[in-house]
Task: inverse folding
């Protein structure tokens, strides 16, 4: 038992050292457990991309694959239902202060032809020369969003407060997600009228903010693809797509009230639509 405890303490010490290295250019740093303000569920209301970048981007502006997804912060874990589904167990929180310009240029990727990225490029009203408070996390698995960032720069995901109940989260595909806290009385909003939900599946979707948001994302992606196919004038492709949606709806409805089944089948359908 002692050996296990020593190993865990050593591992956390290393993680905290990583966070301290990330913030070596920042001042007034502090390491702690999850802040009370962050505990709860957060909805992705907007997906921001670098509007001045020349690079081919994995996600586009307000991409339905990310818009509407839910992040859950607790003292024991950080979870999400994005395509990346980043895992974070027993998060250790670190707060740092730095110039917004430093945070963006040292953590957000850009091509050689791009100007150094700024909050303005992501449509955020943060002055690049303003000093801002940045939140980093380390987990049992390693640095939260450890695949993100720039080597020799700032690695990992980060959070910047925009308001009392709104944060900007640095995410995959060089995106910034706008998170808004889900209130206790917030109701799920699906693509259909929940007061008229008839099937077991529709009622389950209308009972979950995360599932209802997935339903809205799918409806948006479906309508967008229909418009695109109609503009192309390929009637065969259009009919095939419509039929594939009907077939998928049957499989979705077969999930009944199984939340995990519904989440997976909706996420898979979104991926199929965008991989066309």
Result:
């Amino acid at each position: 038992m002692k050996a296990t405890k020593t190993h865990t303490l050593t591992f956390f010490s290393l993680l905290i050292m990583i966070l301290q290295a990330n913030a070596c250019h920042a001042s007034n740093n502090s390491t702690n457990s999850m802040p009370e303000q962050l505990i709860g569920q957060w909805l992705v209301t907007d997906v921001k991309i670098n509007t001045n970048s020349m690079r081919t981007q994995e996600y586009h502006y307000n991409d339905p694959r990310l818009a509407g997804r839910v992040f859950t912060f607790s003292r024991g874990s950080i979870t999400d239902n994005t395509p990346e589904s980043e895992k974070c167990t027993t998060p250790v929180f670190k707060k740092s202060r730095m110039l917004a310009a430093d945070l963006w240029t040292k953590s957000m990727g850009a091509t050689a032809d791009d100007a150094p990225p700024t909050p303005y490029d992501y449509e955020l009203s943060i002055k690049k020369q303003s000093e801002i408070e940045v939140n980093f996390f380390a987990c049992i698995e390693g640095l939260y969003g450890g695949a993100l960032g720039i080597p020799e720069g700032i690695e990992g995901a980060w959070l910047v407060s925009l308001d009392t109940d709104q944060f900007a989260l640095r995410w995959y595909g060089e995106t910034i997600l706008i998170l808004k806290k889900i209130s206790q009385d917030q109701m799920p909003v699906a693509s259909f009228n929940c007061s008229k939900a008839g099937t077991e599946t529709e009622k389950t979707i209308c009972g979950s903010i995360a599932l209802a948001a997935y339903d809205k994302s799918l409806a948006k992606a479906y309508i967008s693809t229909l418009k695109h196919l109609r503009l192309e004038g390929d009637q065969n492709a259009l009919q095939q797509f419509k039929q594939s949606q009907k077939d998928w709806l049957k499989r979705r409805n077969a999930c009944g009230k199984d939340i995990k089944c519904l989440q997976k089948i909706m996420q898979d359908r979104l991926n199929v639509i965008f991989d066309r």
User: Anything to note?
Assistant: The first helix runs from residue 2 to 22. Residues 79 and 239 are 38 Å apart (CA to CA). Residues 2-181 form one domain.
